[in-house]
Amino acid sequence: MSEHPAVTLLQEKRLLPVAVLEDVESGLKTAAALREGGLNMIEVTLRNPAAKEVIAAIIKEFPDMVVGAGTVLDPAMVQPLADMGVQFFVAPGLNEQVVEAAHKAGCPITPGVVTPSEVDRGIRLGCKVLKFFPAEPAGGAKMLKALTAAFGHTGVKFIPTGGINAAKAPEYWALKSVLAVGGSWFVAGDLVKAGKFDEIASMTKEALALAKA
After folding, report:
1. Torsion of CA 152, 186, 67, 151, to 10 degrees
2. How does pLDDT run across 52-92, given as a tens digit for each residue?
3. Of 43, 145, 157, 171, which one is the catalytic site residue?
4. pTM of this structure
5. What are 129's strand-pairing partners?
6. Catalytic option among 13, 131, 145, 157
7. Which domains does the chain have, with CATH numbers?
8. Residue 3 pLDDT class (50, 70, 90 cuts)
9. Catalytic residue at 131?
10. Mean pLDDT of the chain
């Protein structure tokens, strides 16, 4: 899994944009803005009927972009999305059937965890990267630091997501267990709806600079 392009890119950029995209046109413009900002990766959440169509369009238009599907709740969704070209999966919770489906499809999956028991289960299911979600409501970087103290020796990595903004993100990047920070502050729905794609590009550059710092 460590050699998978999605994981390699996350290691390099340390930033995962989590986007809710409601139509193909705005989806393509958002993807273009991210690329302009220096980030050729996106997690498109499956929270609306247009999500699959948006994912397909981004994969076709930007073949160099690593596209993931988020909010994956149904194991039956995994293989069709993988066949479409989705390279990684993200789930809000730890659904063993979804994890197994992703492993069968040969794609990395980052299931959501928040408690020590869930972290333990995730590791036992063969997940090398776990989504700490919802990060801020669940105790923030302090909580993740405590989980790292207990499980860091296993080599597990985390992608904290949920309520994180540019001000909070450095607290997570400072933790050695954090592979990348998942966020929507630079691809927020109000920015997309308002057509502020130049702003998305500039905020992406700023976020990447923060990640490196």
Report:
1. 10
2. 999 999 999 999 999 999 999 999 999 999 999 999 999 99
3. 43
4. 0.96
5. 157
6. 131
7. 5-212 (3.20.20.70)
8. low
9. yes
10. 97
